[in-house]
Amino acid sequence: MPEALNTDWFDPTRANVLVGILLFLTFLLINILRARRAGTLYIRPLPGLTALDEAIGRATEMGKPILYMPGLGDMSEVGTLASITIMGRVARKVADLGSSMQVPCYDPVVMTIMDGVARQAYRESGRPDDFPPGSVHYVSAQQFAYVAAVTGIMIRERPAANIYMGSFYAESLFLAETGNLTGAIQIAGCDKVTQLPFFVCACDYTLLGEELFAASAYIGREPVQLATIAAQDWAKATAAILIVAALLLLAMGRPELGHFLQTS
Amino acid sequence: MYLGPVLVTFAVGAALIVLFFVPHHQAQAVNAEILEWATIVYAFALILGSISLWNTHARKVRHRIEGWPYSLVTMITLVAVTGLGVVFGTAEGTAVYAIYQSVNSPLASTMFALLAFFIASAAFRAFRARNLEATLLLVTAVLMMIGRVSIGEFIWPGFPAFTEWLLDVPNLAAKRAIAIGVGLGAVSTGLKIILGIERSYLGRSN
Amino acid sequence: MSWAQRLLSVDRRIIFVLIGLGTAIPLLMPVNLPITVTPRVEAAYQTIDTLPEGSRVLISMDYEPDTMAELNPMAIAIMRHCFRKKLKVIGMTLYPAGPGLVEPAMKAAAAAEGKTRNVDYVFLGYKSGFQTVMIGMGESIRQQYPVDFYKTPLDSIPVMRGVNSYAGIDLVVNLTASSAADYWIQFAASRFKKKLVLGATAVMATDYYPYLSSRQLLGLIGGMKGAAEYEKRMDLFGDARRGMDAQSLVHVIVSLLVILGNVALFASRRSGGDGTPARPLGGPR
Predict the structure, then answer these.
(1) Distance of residue C84 Cα from the nearest chain A Cα, in angstroms
(2) Residue A153 vs residues A68, A109, A159, B146: alpha-carbon distances, Å
(3) Considering the domain boundaries, does residue C278 fall inside one?
């Protein structure tokens, strides 16, 4: 017998999520107004992103390519979207300096987007004909087949810089250790918490967790983008205050706030 | 030029957010339908990927770039396995199933097994007491490595409970904090895309 | 070059050889070190053990060959547990490479407990779509899987009689090395309110501790150690328990290497060096 069909138009158990989203949008709006009025907002230095310029410069001097890996996520992964933005900046710098870059991709949709971003970067640099066709290419949608191909590229072509930005899984240490073996400067940013320790151990610079998402704002310095980072910080502070408040209230025998914050 | 895709992104993104809060069976049917569309789009994207793969390796073979025989093997394998799969299927007893069991499966397991070696060399190189944080990292790592296996119990019966505490309290606290940050970052990036603030997914570099 | 500098610059290949020996020797000469069952694995065991006879357990084995060393022993141990308790097992996978591993595992578990396909268990096979499949099964399993892996219509399979959605399933078990676990928690446990037990690789198991305390998961089996604990609880000697000796020795070797490396670092600093390793002897750079 089929389950009874749900005919409710609102799930009250998700009211807390709705409140959270509305609160975040409010923070975003306030900070966009702040950023527009002030012209900019302070964002602390992120060594991993500052090192990107150094890495690209080093690769240009050595005449060796840069290897940019967007991770194993598809377009539904937020880490991949962040990676696309960073790659655009890297491609622009590579085009400006006349260096070279390879982007082996795991997902064919991501490859298509990355190719478009790279071509656009070369056009903006005034060198559309310098874009090497095939520099952004699809490898495999199998995890370790991708790893085998990319580590092969690292060993054969000895890139001067390896940049890992996106969603990585068990292959993170494999890639980073092989890159370390070849002597490349390595910069990583991953949103998967379980892989961060491996990147921290094997890479020169690592963007931890949400720093990856701050990259587009950090690199572009556009007021609206910076406003989203500020809104994130305000939301984090609010979350911390609410958690402490809920714990204190619970200790006083008032569990209502704690129950409201619980997800179903 | 990009207004159309941005509007589509806004409409679909906003719709999916609304559907998250609407448990009505018709709304959830729409949600499931959209997820099916994503699967279909991905299937077509695989064709794009295969074309890219073919072009990359064909160029290497054509210009006799170092390693071109391996590219030739890749191209032959791509055509052969695809053809066998289309003609005979992939069920048990078919050629593709046999190729998978005897080639793909052992290769994937072997590659994953190599991680053990890389972890050892990375740990030897990275776990050095250069400063306070690095010292804490290496002490914790050594305690966890010993305590999480049978030999830890052998050395001290309280080891497993101690490592469980390390995982349950300090590790979980740090993970939850990072997860909250990552979650908020993901929400922020998602909203930026839906609201059209972030347009990198359109293939633009800004 | 001092001994400390030599140690700090040791060729990676020496480390690889030590790890290789540390893995191979215990597999060839097992010691059978003791294993204690931890509360999380015990909770998973009890969740299955307390199910009444005839209950239906949906086991989604979402892994591929790279993680089978950790997850396959779990799958076999759990299925044998279900068979011993006379539970009906519904197996499935959401990974295209899954059937090649899951089908032999189900056959092995059934053969070991003298169970018959279609009467005691069914293997639905692979279906693409992840969330789509999980949501779809909430309405109709037959829409997602009209036939099983062997092309038998579900209507003619005794195990599937009266089961066409989560309503007919008493427990969901997910064995995975990927984010499939998040979706099973989101849909099976939260939306459809099913009891859920999770088996995951060691590296990702700790991510799911919060779900245990919130009771969205009723048990958690982490990595090969968790699988070995489950085998111990079942009084089985499977691949997981066999592998624990090797895992123990490798952990000891890595710990000793780390300690030696730090001893060399301090010795090197004392003799005026900065602890930076020189180019490894004969090794690649």
Answers:
(1) 29
(2) 11, 22, 8, 36
(3) no
Number of domains in chain A: 2
Of B97, B153, B172, the CB nearest to C36: B153
* Domain limits for position A243: 12-40+223-261
Name the residue of chain A whose CA is nearest to C284's CA.
A181
C283 in a structural domain: no
Read off the pLDDT of residues A191-249 as tens digits, 9 standing for 90 and up. 888 888 889 888 999 998 888 888 878 877 788 888 888 998 999 999 999 999 999 99
* Domain of B181, in residue numbers: 122-194
A1: pLDDT strictly greater than 70: no
Q: Do C252 and C231 fall into the same domain?
A: no
Pick the residue of A155, A194, A196 with the most C CBs within 10 A to test the interface with C by mutation: A194
Residue C116 to residue B72: CA distance in whole angstroms: 47
Q: Are residues C88 and C131 in the same domain?
A: yes
- Asked if A180 is an interface residue toward chain C (Cβ–Cβ < 8 A), one would say no
- Which chains pack against C, by 3+ Cβ pairs within 8 A? A, B
Give CA–CA dist A172/A94, Å, rounded: 24
Query: For B115-143, what is each residue's pLDDT tens digit?
Result: 889 889 888 888 888 888 888 888 998 99
C72/C134 same-domain check: yes
How high is the pLDDT of residue B80? 94
In a domain, B20, yes or no: yes
Q: Could you tell me the CATH number of the domain that includes residue C150?
A: 3.40.50.620
Closest partner CB to C207 (pick from A193, A263, A264): A193
pLDDT tens sequence across B157-186: 888 889 889 988 898 888 888 888 888 888
* Cα end-to-end span (Å), chain A: 26
Residues of B in contact with A119 (CB under 8 A): 203
Within a domain: C185? yes
Nearest CB to C15: which of B32, B120, B148? B120
Same domain (yes/no): A255, A201 = no
Residues in chain A: 264
The length of chain C in residues reads: 285
What is the span of the domain harbouring residue C253? Answer: 3-30+244-270
In tens, the pLDDT along B24-37 reads 888 878 877 887 78
**Does C285 reside within a domain?**
no
What are the chain B neighbours of C136 within 8 Å (beta carbons)? 32
pLDDT tens for C231-276 read 999 999 999 999 999 999 999 999 999 999 999 888 888 776 555 5
Instruction: Look at B191 and A11 and tell me if their CB atoms are within 8 Å.
Output: no
Helices and strands (H, E) in chain C, number of each type? 12, 6
- Would the pTM count as exceeding 0.80? yes
Residue B11, classified by CB atoms within 10 Å of its CB into exposed (0-12), middle (13-18) or buried (19+), is exposed
